Fold:
Amino acid sequence: MASTVDQHGATTGSSSISANTSQISIADQFARCTDEEIQAALEELRLENVNLEKENQILFKYLKRNDIIKDLQIRAKEAAVSPNQPEVRVPKRRTRSRTGSTERLLKLSTEQKCDIATKEHDELKDEIAKFKNESEKILDLYKATREEAEVRIAEMKKSSYEFNRDIVLGSKNPRTGKIVAERVTRYFEDKLRTRDALVEKLRLKNQTMKVQKKKLQIQLKQKEELGEVLHEVDFKQLKIENSQYLEKIEERNAELLKLKHSSGNTLQVLNTYKKKLDQLTLESERLQSEIDQRNDILTKIDAETELVEKERQKAENINQNLRTELSDYIVPDILDYVGVRSDLYELRKSYRTWERKVDIAQMELQKFEKQWGILREGNRMSHSWSGTEQQVL
Structure:
């Protein structure tokens, strides 16, 4: 018993001596190293710690995924609760050596690390694929929502344009300038009728799809009852065909998006051309009214031209007659002209004398008329006196 204790003391003493010597040798090594070498050693230790942290994270994920941590916790609790365990008192240095040996035993080998890493890699790939599928579904949902919003916006623009064309501009009363209520009600009734027809069509389509779904479910149930279960090869073939069909569907969706964009562009171009057509129609109506006015003015000008032409013809005839008379006119001799001028002078002179004689005769006539008036007045007065005398007698 004493020999065993001596041996134990000897071993403890030798281990303490070796630990002291190792610490002294490490201290000597650090004392001999330069600052750069110490910095490089620290950097290597830091990188090693980083790698160990990553390995610990991977190991923790692996243990958590496989529920190994719970088993270890349950075992630890059972070991702590289990009674009648003898207490073993050992020196501290001996416990340190034992804990170091347990730590060395708990270290994983390279093959175990590779297995855990490959399993975690596969799990990570599965998670990435799952996340990719979910994100693709969300993206498809967003694309479908965006396409539906674009279709609804196009329909709203179309309905707004038709409302402005048919109601706001087309249903105005030209006399009052107000919108006719009957056309508005007829427009909304037509819209509601088209919506009801679309709802009925979709309802029938939904019913047919439900019937098809029931048929497919019945066929699938019959196949399961008959034992026509698909094998793994069939599933792989179906997956390949499904991927091919998905690629075709994506191509068709891309073509559909292009066609929708082109249809939207063509709709915008059509709207612009319709606006231009309306403007050109108004311009054409204005030009037509202006042409009618110009035609009226032209007819008036033609009538005036005909009248002027007649007057010109008359003037030309008169001018022609005058020209013929002028051409037929014979100029008299100078002596004849002098004789005619002297005769004219004598006639004018006699005319003036006769005018003076007429003036004198008029004066004489006025004088005689005055005298005749006086005589008539005297005769009338004498007759009136004679009448009064006779009445007196």
Summary: The longest helix spans residues 232-328. Helices lie at 2-32, 35-65, 68-81, 92-106, 110-169, 181-226, 232-328, 334-392. The radius of gyration is 68 Å. The CA atoms of residues 108 and 243 lie 41 Å apart.
